[in-house]
Design goal:
single chain, two-stranded antiparallel ribbon, Four Helix Bundle (Hemerythrin (Met), subunit A), 2 strands, Arc Repressor Mutant, subunit A, 10 helices, disordered N terminus, 2 domains
Amino acid sequence: MNYKTKRSAETPTKRSSIDAYYFIRQAIVDGAVKPGERLMEERWAKELSISRTPVRDALIKLEVEGLVSSLPNRGAVARRFSKDDVNESYELRSVLEGYAARKASTFITKKGIIALRCIADQMEASLKRTFPSKEEEVRWLVNQNNEFHNIISMASRNVRLQSILKTIIEIPLVFKGYFWFGREERILSNHYHRRLILAIENGDGERAELLMKEHIYEGRDFILTKLDAIP
């Protein structure tokens, strides 16, 4: 159920906790909050014009989700992701998104295919586009990429799968990956998107699953290579 439909039944504190959760979560996912950066309750409470209690509730929820860590003498901080975290996340993504692609090849609508093609067109055209800053370019790319994968996830018609994938995909690693991406990596990613659209449109579930797994493993290997180069 869309949380907006429940607003009338929620207390102001619970409503504030939900707002704080989404606001802080987006800041972490977007990269506005850096890994290891302290998440001070006072700062967020002031920024959102709410008390510290709903902020504390939001940070607890984000810790359960794996985006926040609680450290001795430091409190809540944006979680740092290790190479093992990368491996685990992308291994899980390959299985779940591969399955989603297979199911999408059975259930996707013509409207869904058109939406996927529209995103693919925009991402390819963006190679010639000038953005105000690198951060804005990366944020735009991440949003487009997430929407592409989200359409496939929704087409699987598996609500539980959609919920799990949303948590796994929308992590800072995605933002960092696109920040590191060069022209060659973006072209390769776009190429996979086109092949995925074709396989799903043709109802070839086996090929769609394989292509999705290859696509995700390419991203994983690229990020691991970049992490290895960090002193």
